[in-house]
Write a structure and sequence with these properties.
453 residues; mainly beta; 17-stranded antiparallel sheet; 5 helices; four-stranded mixed sheet; globular; 25 strands
Length: 453
């Protein structure tokens, strides 16, 4: 029971009706709801919980559209009004042939700037979401081009009836003829080989996830990686990975915690997110140690019907017993970005980044129907939302091993810009912007976030 005392204005949930889920099991949807049959609450509280349920179902990435409402039912024995919760979903397409073109750069702007067609990976295989309607995910992919190899993964295997404990695994074999070996003038330096692979990696990871509620997630990863690099890598950078051996065996541990309170994880406009991670790694027969603590906090606030503000804080502290370049990659990698620095990398041991955006919704969510037949129903209904954005970011990277040519570390970094974000279905976000950094360099930048690919 949500409310301890029943009043005349309270509503009891007598039933939950689900429709549109041709593949997804009912209990997979029920797992995401903050209420259950038999719960009693005030009407305004019920409306609030329906919004929470809609957000969580959207964030599963299983559905293109979710609609939740309630209709009056009969009076209960206690005289309390009852209702039926009506949930209607439109499922996504879950079977994706893995035919992809991947630009092997840190971001789209870098690839457009350099236009290096050698840095393209073509992949083929299959990625299946929502296997058996249980939200399992299966991936098998083969890669060739810049990167060669095979990836196999299966995740979200429930270990209990309440689906609070999940298991997954990933196995990867990758081969590269081009490798990021250093940085100079705050740019990445790549070493290339036409005759042999500079990096041959095999990795296996087992993941255990504990999700006691609908907002908080604990994740534990244990992995083993065997990597064989070319001798030329260590000749170019003797501090590449903390050992002088060309073959390295590493055992890693990763713990991640997240608390999700955002309305739409792919492009939030309201709510907040808290994330933290602890990484531990040992290699070179336990003669090398590395650890990292990372904290993230994101806050999103609607200022009016169309104006939105957000701030995102990302900070990380690393520790290791030897200098190792590949563990000093901070700003310019993964999600650690500063507006106006798309072409740069800032290496170091510790970082702090504050990203700030002011957004205006130029075009509220519009739904377009392509064609008139039922064929391809999962693709013919497309939605778009367009935002204009002003950004101002601050950051700092501490580097105890900074080379003379890398001048951005150990200095205050800032960048600002304006642009457009196009949000569409399957959690795809396209971005085009103009930005300027602390050196006074300005330019146009482009980005794409497509979780499916």
């Amino acid at each position: 029971m949500i409310c301890g005392f029943i009043t005349a204005t309270d509503i009891c949930i007598s039933a939950i009706s689900i429709s549109g889920n041709k593949q997804t099991k009912d209990f997979t949807i029920l797992r995401e709801l903050p209420f259950h049959v038999g719960d009693v609450m005030a009407e305004d509280k019920l409306i609030e919980q329906l919004t929470v349920a809609t957000n969580h179902l959207n964030n599963t990435s299983l559905f293109n559209y979710v609609n939740i409402d309630y209709i009056p039912d009969t009076l209960t024995a206690s005289g309390c009004e009852s209702c039926v919760i009506m949930i209607t979903v439109e499922e996504r397409w879950y079977y994706w042939p893995q035919v992809s073109l991947k630009l092997e750069d840190r971001n789209l702007s870098n690839w457009i700037h350099d236009r290096n067609f050698d840095r393209i990976t073509i992949g083929w295989g299959m990625r299946v979401y929502n296997v058996l309607g249980l939200r399992h995910k299966f991936t098998i992919s083969d890669y060739f081009g810049f990167e060669k190899g095979l990836r196999l993964g299966y995740s979200n295997i429930a270990l209990d009836k309440k689906r609070t404990k999940m298991l997954g695994f990933t196995m990867v074999a990758l081969y590269n003829r081009t490798l990021n070996v250093s940085s100079e003038n705050d740019r990445v330096i790549y070493l290339k080989s036409r005759n042999s692979f500079l990096d041959r990696t095999f990795e296996g990871v087992v993941n255990y996830t504990y999700r006691p509620g609908i907002r908080s997630v604990h994740s534990f990863n244990v992995g083993y990686k065997r990597t064989h690099i070319g001798d030329s890598v260590l000749m170019y950078n003797s501090d590449y990975w903390g050992t002088q051996n060309a073959i390295n065996h590493a055992i890693s541990f990763l713990y991640e915690y997240s608390f999700e309170h955002r309305d739409y994880a792919a492009y939030p406009t309201d709510g907040y997110f808290i994330g933290s991670s602890i990484t531990g790694l040992t290699a070179d027969k336990m003669r090398f140690f590395y650890s990292e603590l990372n904290l993230r906090f994101q806050y999103y606030k609607p200022l009016s019907q169309r104006w939105f503000w957000d701030s995102r804080l990302n900070t990380g502290v690393t520790f290791k017993n030897k200098h190792a370049y590949i563990y000093d990659q901070h700003v310019g990698y993964e999600e650690k970005n500063i507006t106006g620095y798309d072409y740069y990398v800032i290496d170091g041991q510790h970082h702090i980044i504050l990203n700030n955006d002011l957004r205006y919704c130029l075009m509220p969510k519009k739904i377009f129907i392509l064609g008139s037949s039922d064929s391809g129903a999962k693709f013919k209904k497309i939605h778009f939302t367009l935002y204009a954005k002003l950004s101002y970011d601050l950051g700092y990277v501490c580097n105890d091993y900074r080379s003379p040519s890398n001048t951005l570390a150990n200095t205050l970094l800032w960048g600002s810009g304006f642009g457009l974000d196009l949000v569409t279905y399957y959690d795809i976000v396209l971005n085009a912007s103009y930005a300027i950094n602390k050196m006074g360099y300005g330019g146009f930048y482009f980005g794409i976030k497509a979780p499916l690919f």
